[in-house]
TrEMBL record, chains A, B:
Upper taxonomic lineage: Eukaryota, Fungi, Dikarya, Ascomycota, Pezizomycotina
Protein name: diphthine methyl ester synthase
Any one of the GO BP annotations: protein histidyl modification to diphthamide
Reactions that this protein is recorded to catalyse: 2-[(3S)-amino-3-carboxypropyl]-L-histidyl-[translation elongation factor 2] + 4 S-adenosyl-L-methionine = diphthine methyl ester-[translation elongation factor 2] + 4 S-adenosyl-L-homocysteine + 3 H(+)
Keywords, sorted A to Z: Methyltransferase, S-adenosyl-L-methionine, Transferase
Domain Tetrapyrrole methylase: 1-252
Alphabetical list of PANTHER family matching this protein: DIPHTHINE METHYL ESTER SYNTHASE, DIPHTHINE SYNTHASE
Amino acid sequence: MLYLVGLGLSDETDITVKGLDIVKKASRVYLEAYTSILLVDQSTLVMRPVLTQFDESYYGRSIIVADREMVEFDSNLESESNELLRYAATEDVALLVVGDPFGATTHADLVLRARQLGIPVTTVPNASIMNGIGACGLQLYNFGQTVSMVFFTDNWRPASFYDRVRENRQIGLHTLLLLDIKVKEQTIENMMRGNKVFEPPRYMTVGQCARQMLEIEEEKAEGVYGPDSLAIGAARVGGRNEKFVAGTLKELCDADDALGPPLHSMVLLGRRAHELERDFARDFAIDKESWDSIWARDYGKQDAPAAPEA
Amino acid sequence: MLYLVGLGLSDETDITVKGLDIVKKASRVYLEAYTSILLVDQSTLVMRPVLTQFDESYYGRSIIVADREMVEFDSNLESESNELLRYAATEDVALLVVGDPFGATTHADLVLRARQLGIPVTTVPNASIMNGIGACGLQLYNFGQTVSMVFFTDNWRPASFYDRVRENRQIGLHTLLLLDIKVKEQTIENMMRGNKVFEPPRYMTVGQCARQMLEIEEEKAEGVYGPDSLAIGAARVGGRNEKFVAGTLKELCDADDALGPPLHSMVLLGRRAHELERDFARDFAIDKESWDSIWARDYGKQDAPAAPEA
């Protein structure tokens, strides 16, 4: 049996009682990502939060840190198995996953492979950023598709997020933006010398995200959003010290000090928002008067152009 | 301190270790909903799953079943407190909530009132149907807004869901449909006699939902979806016996026996779907050949009309 156990959003006590029971009984336990090693890779970044504190000794047993090869598959090699599935064919194997097991496409792929090999799979759900963001006060049913924002470089500034945000905003919905994480980066020098020395991880901040968004709007000038658009910056969602800051995109460019350490994420508000959402998020506002006046002008509209008869 | 503790989706072992610790230490523990009593009310139905099995004795302490008056507020009465907040002002009070604390607007309202009274609030996240539905194999970032489907009656057939579904489908996104629950209903006779006798709870099934959807499409004839549109029926999501059935809306009209007992929910697929989603859900298909051919014809399109340059 293969168990996929969600660890939740913040620390080792966010595991469920059901999940902890599996960890204690399984013959092998793999941990896919944790703070000090941060095995987050680009392909699965989109959906994966990172635990801010994590003490594996809490579970009272040895845990194998799973690297990419143990979990993922090379799509060029058909019918490939991997270490995880080889053991799971005959033993109870648990893979601990930050957030919820179905946050990353990697795990859907793993389940699919296990099925093909006739290995039973049990998943233990947990909170992920996709529902944890509800703590900012915006209602989850008012969110559209989720987008990811990557670090721009001098010659790579992918703007596909802009079209996704437009689609959401055209029908009045909020957009959750998941922010880039860079880990295991090497300097060119270390790479050339073959030194396995990695740069410190980099986490995109709400300020960086807001600036990149405004940069692309300035370039495209299609009015999908602007410096006055309301948004909520979120830090360490689901953790004991989670923090939200609400304001305009322009204000959020300078909100990183207020938000504190990673991980950050952001929500751009849709105009079909409810007054309970306004009041809840207002408490997080950098400038409450500006929040109120922009809201009154642009938000709280229950109909949207795409549904004229609604 | 007021603690809002998410219970997760299925049974009493879905609470997190952090949540259980709070339950053990709090001076008063309220439980907002559980199987045998089902305190689900219409206004908060949209976001709230219901535990399929729940044994409060598991927590090893007495738990107060919170009725509506203890948790909600009458919006006509300003600055109203309630039992929960009166105790929370001086003691550690925990309110256990099925799913995630921010699944229902009620809890956002409760947090807002607590803030106004200067009562600190801590929330403990957990899985909700909003992310648990990821177990059907559809990627959460491809979902649009969530809609609710209520039981039609002879003279009340609210069709506002139709516009929301259209908005999602126009940009190629999946739609999660949360299905109606009727509890504490009385017969007219019992109501007139003042007998506090309630009818057995009713849960909408995937079959009922699919039929209502097709009925409205037939009436409106705007082609938002049709009998051939692909969807996934879900039962007891997050539970040990969760079940998915995939097929056309027409096929799902008759899938209730295959899905089994409540709670049911449903996802209508958007055409901007990925082949991993196709392959994962195909295993749940009533008719795999029909699934494949309809998918090849209508799904897996990465661009959508609302974003021509995407």
